[in-house]
Amino acid sequence: MEEKHFYEENTGAATSDTLIKVTGMYKDWFLDYASYVILERAVPAISDGLKPVQRRILHSMKDLDDGRYNKVANIVGHTMQYHPHGDASIADAMVQIGQKDLMIDMQGNWGNILTGDRAAASRYIEARLSKFALEVVFSPKVTNWQLSYDGRKKEPVYLPVKFPLLLAQGAEGIAVGLSTKILPHNFNELIQASIAYLKGKKFILLPDFQTGGIIDVQNYNDGMRGGKVRVRAKISAQDKSTLVITEIPFSTTTSSLIESILKANEKGKIRIKKIEDNTAANVEILIHLPAGISPDKTIDALYAFTACETSISPLGCVIVDHKPHFIGVSDMLRISTDSTVHTLKKELEVKLNELENQWHFASLERIFIENKVYRLIEDQETWEGVLTAIDEGLKPFVKVLKRPVVEDDLVRLTEIKIKRISKFDIDKAQQRIDALEGEIKEVRNNLDNLIEYAIDYFTHLKKEYGKDKDRLSEIRVFDDVDATKVVVRNLKLYVNKEEGFIGTSLKKDEYVCDCADIDDIIVFTKSGIMQVVKVDSKVFIEKDIIYAAVFKKKDQRTIYNLVYKDGKGGTSYIKRFAVTGVTRDKPYNLTQGKSGSEILYFSANPNGEAETITVLLRNTGTVKKLKWELDFADLQIKGRGVKGNIVSKYNILRVELKEKGVSTLKPRKIWFDPTVQKLNVDERGNLLGAFRGDDKLLLVDEKGVAKTVVPDLSLHFDIIPLIMERWVQERPITAVYFDSEKDRYFIKRFLIENKNKEDNFIGDNAKLIFVSSEWRPVIELVFVKPRGGDPLPNKSINVEDFISIKGFKAIGNQLTTTKIKEVILSDSLPYEEPKEEPLENLDVIDANQINDSDSNDTQTKLEL
Fold first, then answer.
1. Cβ distance 144 to 159 under 8 Å?
2. Residue 844 pLDDT > 60
3. Residue 853 has pLDDT above 60, yes or no
4. Tens digits of residue pLDDT in 749-790
5. What CATH code is assigned to 233-310?
6. How far apart are CA 481 and CA 526, in angstroms?
7. Fold for domain 340-453?
8. How far is it, in rounded angstroms, from Cα 328 to Cα 334?
9. Where are the domains of the chain?
10. Is residue 243 a contact partner of residue 258, using CB atoms and an 8 Å limit?
11. Do domains 488-659 and 668-828 have the same CATH topology?
12. Whole-angstrom Cα distance, residue 616 to residue 648?
């Protein structure tokens, strides 16, 4: 049967013996279509940073420009003379340009990038080119022109943009087979980078978004493929039960952000009471929390489970020489800056040519009138005779000119009116010629020093248009949020120990704890099997479960104490171990794997506690000692696979808890990393101290608010406190402050009286000048120099002698009425801090040295 192509069947264009393969159609038609979409619609050109529709919109606005606003509908209609597509696509593109607030001066409702509200219909809103656009985008005399799609109009091939517009506005487009995503950058930083490039210096470009937010650009990769920018909303705690979002991530809106928060709340990832959206000119989203919910953990949970944190993958694809190229933003800036220099050079050359032509004709006009050459044409009867007479009359005087006199010059002289000749002022004419010579000299100097001229041009742009264009996005390194630590545990976990089932649907069985659907559960059985499983409705482990809890990965402070029997009637062993990481769903044997092995005693200790146990043997008549005590503190903490120490070779009747113990782990050292503004135990930043279980962190801020908090690693610090250290209850705080009502300075020493409450220790009408937590500080007062007088000498004060420790709310002692420039901590007197209570003389173990291995090292024999 004869094969026919779809084209043949629908058009009848082919004859019965014609065969067109699909591959041919694909190659000829589809690639043409793909090329058109790439070059003419989706991807911006490196030459001016614009897509064709954007270029045509700006060109149309220049056509219509008369200094007044035009209806957007009128501009869209005018653009359709150049752009062969519908009005909707042109209007949408124009709104996008306008919302970037750089090229278009807008009037009316142009939508809101914060809320996602659309602009009003194009017949209701108006626009005109901004002063910035008029200065940097258009220069008709150096523009290359081409015919529009229907041949009726001329349009620019590229606009002579003298600014890295592509990087300032950013660009996004999806073509056929490729896409582009160039992130916007800060206006002033782009100009500074262009100047640095022209000076031969290094520069770094980082994105900046209109929506603000906090950005992590460690993996920006110069905006090339494979890079990533993490963007976070700016969230702070307004009070203990309210969070406020004041900036949102780029590519989100308040509506989409609130929707993601509500979805996370419905899924139980976070817990909130209600959300209020008060966004207008600025973002303000209030998140009200239920009682007992931590604001800091909720902030981390918002970053982990909602659109409050997003990842953006840049992709620098641009059209270079009519082909798509993948380049970084640094190269884009270099190309743009080089293009600006080239355009400035062309403009100077055009201006020089115009000035030289003006100088030439002004000089020629002066010769023509001053030497009365115009009288030679009175007797001429033909046009050729007139031109010849003028040419002959000028010859004695043309040596001062810089180029020959041509026919156009002669014709132009004949067009001078008699009135102008009669009122001709030689001095004014010479002044004009001198002024033109000065301008020509300046232009030539600029051409000879083109780079300096370009630097001055960029400096002018920054001074003229960069005043209100400060960076909006704060650059910061993010600390990764562990979702398991911040998720709201809204599920309840149950266990059927006898049958060996664990899950959230076993509501008739024993309650274990609250959990979340992303948690892992660690389970121990009587036979010595340990297994970590995912939370589910019902999971079978093994009969006779003895312990189950939420598993914390890399947890080095939870220590398990264990006594087990090795096989039926075998030797008994004792060991201590931590479980920091395992393979999910894999059973691990904590005994030596012999049949009949059994756990005789088990405890899980969240802070490494070591209890004392009593071992009782069966009375067989051959054993002399049937009862003795063992202290787990005598054992080292090793890996889960260790064999352990021998307890007894005889049959144990039971093991009983005699006395609970204390932690054998060292106090946990905590650091503060100012880069990410969070606490950590990874030795990043400044060491705050070694914290025991009930130790608190002292915080004092610049507003005079002091408080103590549990050193939770999820704490957020929008502003770094003046004092951040482990709180010692007996250590006084020294503060110097200025009371604006009494117009004088005070000093006070006090202790934190209520460790569970934050409070202001200087009052609402005071300004904190100095604060210290040294035991016995000595301070130096530096005074402001009086007007017209000699500088006042500094004053040293031994704080301990000047004032005693008083109450938290005490005003303190008056220090001075003289204006203080600064207070310096000059020295601290020696003081021996009170020693902390020892840990019951135990052999303290550092949790960081725990080796969680599967080794079978046997420890020292403990049998008595």
1. no
2. no
3. no
4. 999 887 777 888 888 889 999 999 998 899 999 998 888 778
5. 3.30.1360.40
6. 36
7. Topoisomerase; domain 3 (1.10.268)
8. 10
9. 43-160, 233-310, 340-453, 488-659, 668-828
10. no
11. yes
12. 10
From residue 333, alpha-carbon distances to 19, 88, 158, 192 in Å are: 51, 32, 17, 11
Q: What SS3 class is residue 223?
A: helix
Name residue 108's amino acid.
G
Whole-angstrom distance, CA of residue 451 vs CA of residue 448: 9
Residue 143 has pLDDT above 50, yes or no: yes
The set of residues, in sequence order, having a beta carbon less than 8 Å from that of 620 and lying 6+ positions away, is: 650, 651
Q: Which CATH superfamily is domain 43-160 in?
A: Topoisomerase II, domain 5 (3.90.199.10)
| pLDDT-derived band at 733, boundaries 50, 70, 90 | very high
CATH topology of domain 668-828: Neuraminidase (2.120.10)
Residue 559's contacts (CB-CB under 8 Å, 6 or more residues apart) are: 576, 577, 578, 604, 605, 608, 609, 610, 637, 664, 665
Which pLDDT value is given to residue 457? 94
| Mean pLDDT computed over every residue of the chain | 86
pLDDT at 833: 61
Full 3-state SS string of 60-119? HHHHHCCCCCEEHHHHHHHHCCCCCCCHHHHHHHHHHHHHCCCCEEEECCCCCCCCCCCC
Both tokens of 772, joined, read 């210290």
Active site residue 124: yes
* Residues 673/683, Cβ–Cβ less than 8 Å: no
Of 745 and 380, the structure prediction assigns the larger pLDDT to 745
Q: Out of 3.20.20.70, 3.40.50.720, 3.40.50.970, 2.120.10.90, select the CATH number for domain 488-659.
A: 2.120.10.90
Question: pTM value?
Answer: 0.74
Residue found under tokens 């067109």:
20
pLDDT in tens, 300-323: 889 989 999 999 999 999 988 888
For 754, the token pair is 């209520």
> In 55-81, which positions are buried (b, 16+ CB within 10 angstroms) versus exposed (e)?
bbbbbbbbebeeeeebbbbebbebbeb
* Selected catalytic residue, list 33, 124, 511, 831: 124
User: What value does the mean pLDDT take over residues 278-288?
Assistant: 91
